[in-house]
Design brief:
Layout (H helix, E strand, L loop, with lengths): L12 E3 L10 E8 L7 E3 L2 E8 L2 E5 L2 E5 L3 E5 L5 E5 L4 E8 L1 H8 L6 H9 L4 E3 L1 H13 L5 H16 L4 E3 L16 H12 L6 H7 L4 H12 L3 H18 L5 H7 L5 H12 L3 H8 L2
Parallel strand pairs: 1-3
Antiparallel strand pairs: 2-9, 4-7, 4-9, 5-6, 5-8, 7-10, 10-11
Length: about 290
């Protein structure tokens, strides 16, 4: 069962981060409590997020994946996202910055093309590892205790390192664009929460459609238009993602994996695992273990 704080509104809303702070270029926010913000949302500001302690499932654009402690991501402007933590503790530090204001400042000192390229790439969401993650996480953790020019220098150092990063993984698909609008209600979000909480059991399309208060065929069109995948594809991605998490934690019994992830048929589990990961569960285990 996923630990999700109940809120009245779960639609991907447009959030205002820096608008109420006059002339603010960037700010940091520390989360230290039972939950991350559970509202599926997007905002103009770019966001660098470092998870200090937690694990669970996240949605970034059209990417559905698992996150753990020590994860560093960069999200571009207007990229919908949410982190659902599996346990009742969530600690992270997040840096928000206005890309237009940053570019305006940097362009006064010379060409800012590499930063424009970075911010454009960030519209897919980027996950960092290796030396880049180590360097950025240290700089992020130092910022809350800094003031004035020292704080600004830290931001510039972070951006410079990100432009040179090599150990990167793009999260949303190539060409992804935000298809959510203010007129959208919370239908997709209720379905996300339902699937994350029940993927180990038998999930029926009709049940998901009912949760969204829609007829089955209308729901199928609605869900695919907004997530770029069918509902069945989404459920299988969540299940196989959970299987990969269990394998990383040491599970080696393929039959147990299938059952724990909601598959009553071992052949179906193997089929969807191969389709999504490009290899069999056994080969995935071997590759993970070197």
């Amino acid at each position: 069962m996923i630990a999700v704080k109940k809120t009245a509104n779960m639609k991907p809303v447009f959030a205002k981060i820096l608008e109420d702070i006059e002339n603010q270029v960037f700010c940091t926010r520390i989360t230290d409590g039972p939950y991350f913000a559970t509202e599926f949302h997007f905002h103009k500001e770019c966001q660098i997020n470092y998870v200090l302690e937690s694990e669970g499932k996240r949605i970034i654009g059209d990417s559905v994946g698992h996150f753990t402690s020590d994860e560093l991501t960069l999200l571009g402007s207007d990229l919908p996202h949410v982190w659902y933590n599996d346990r009742d503790y969530a600690k992270s530090i997040t840096l928000f910055f206005d890309p237009d204001r940053v570019l305006s400042i940097l362009s006064q000192f010379g060409p800012a093309c590499k930063f424009e390229t970075l911010f454009k790439a960030a519209k897919r969401g980027i996950k960092y590892s290796g030396t880049t993650k180590t360097a950025i996480s240290k700089l992020l953790l130092d910022i809350p205790g800094q003031e004035g020019i020292t704080k600004i220098i830290s931001l510039l150092n972070i951006l410079e390192i990100l432009t040179q990063a090599e150990n990167v993984e793009f999260l949303a698909s190539n060409g992804y664009t935000n298809s959510y609008h203010a007129k959208d209600n919370d239908r997709v979000d209720r379905v996300f929460k339902f699937v994350f909480s029940n993927f180990a059991g038998d999930i029926q399309l009709e049940e998901a459609a009912a949760i969204a208060n829609m007829h089955k065929h209308a729901f199928c069109r609605y869900f695919k238009e907004r997530t770029r995948r069918t509902f069945v594809q989404f459920v299988n991605e969540v299940r196989i993602g959970h299987a990969c998490k269990l394998i990383a934690e040491g599970e080696t019994n393929v039959s147990s994996l299938a059952y724990d992830c909601g598959y009553n048929s071992l052949s179906n589990f193997n089929k969807f695992f191969r389709k999504i990961k490009g290899m069999s569960p056994r080969n995935y285990m071997n590759e993970l273990n070197g």
